[in-house]
Structures are given as structure tokens and as C-alpha cells.
Amino acid sequence: MNKNFYFYCIFILTLASCGPKLIPLDTALNEDFSTYRKQYKYQPEKYEGNDATIREIQLSFDSTTQTADITKALNRLLDAVPVIADYVPDDLRIEGWRIQIYRGRDRREASEARQRSYDMFPNLTPYMIYNAPRYQVRVGDFLEPYEYQPFLKAFKKEFSGALAVPDIVNVIIDKSQRESPKK
């Protein structure tokens, strides 16, 4: 009985301490803060000019029926090459796409596939990658999917298993042909 009595007393004290706290209102809000507030003086504006009516300007065209063709402006924005700062290295490695034309275990076949890809498109760099026990031959450095589509079609005629794979690609920046930023 003694343990239960102590338990009930502690329980009642805990409930009483969780109740709302009462603040007497007569002492909390009696202070006058108007002496501390900044005073602003307001003077309404006075018009001292002549009363005149607004003159309507006649336009040579109906501005409500005009349509704007923004295709050319958008194409210029999309085709614009961003100015790259001077601290960017000569070559960047960023996410892009390559065309994988061979995947297998034979090094000689991988070398032949690499040579055939170079013969087809000498401007695309072929990369031979060895991840034990497989060789992979990937071609090109493409940033967007629309760039590799024509090459993928041509490679599929020669290599039936050709496919586009996401990869880290090399982007070479020719700083000699780049315009300097205008200040």
C-alpha cells in the first residue's frame, strides 16, 4: 500500500506540473512603450501643376493582334556556346555517352573491332577497356543522345551488338579559338 501511495502522489504531482502556467495580466501589460517608438512625420503630397488630360497616342498597328515568333531567338540561345572560364583545364571528364561495339573475352577480336571502327570513322576515338575477364571496345565522346544516333546506325550495320552506353567522356577545349569574356 505504501508503494502505491507514493506512486499516485508522484503521478498527481507530474500531472499538476504539466498544466498551463498563469501570468497575471495586470503587471505584464501596464508599461507604456510609446516613448521608445520612433516618430514619423507624414505630409501628404500636393500637386502644384496644371490639370491636363492625357493624350492618346495612335499606334500604326493593332498591338492586341501581334504574335511573337520566338523560334529564332530560342534557337540562338540553344546553339550558344557558353563562355568557359580560364581556370577550366584543357580536357574535362564529364558524364556522356559512348557506343560499345564489342564485348567479349578475345583480345585479338577486340583489337580488330577497334581497328574497324577507326577505319569507319577516323575522327571518333576508339577505347579498348579490359575488365577481367572481358574486353570492351567503346567509340566516341558524345554529350547528348542525339549526337550518337547517326553513328550508332552505321555501327549497327557493321557490328550487330552495337549499343549506346553511358560513360565518362573526354571533352577537349581548344582555348586558342575561344573568345575572351567581355568586361
% residues in beta strands? 15-25%
Average pLDDT confidence is 77
Helical fraction equals 25-40%
N/C terminus separation: 89 Å
Structure description:
The chain is an alpha+beta fold and 183 residues long. The protein has a domain of 69 residues. The chain is 31% helix and 21% strand. The chain contains five helices and four strands. Strand 2 and strand 3 form a beta hairpin.
Short précis:
The chain is of the alpha+beta class.
Question: How are the SSEs placed, and which strands pair?
Answer:
Elements: H1 2-17, H2 25-28, H3 71-79, E1 91-104, H4 107-120, E2 126-131, E3 134-142, H5 145-158, E4 163-172
Antiparallel strand pairs: 1-3, 1-4, 2-3
Which features would summarize this protein structure in a list?
183 residues, alpha+beta
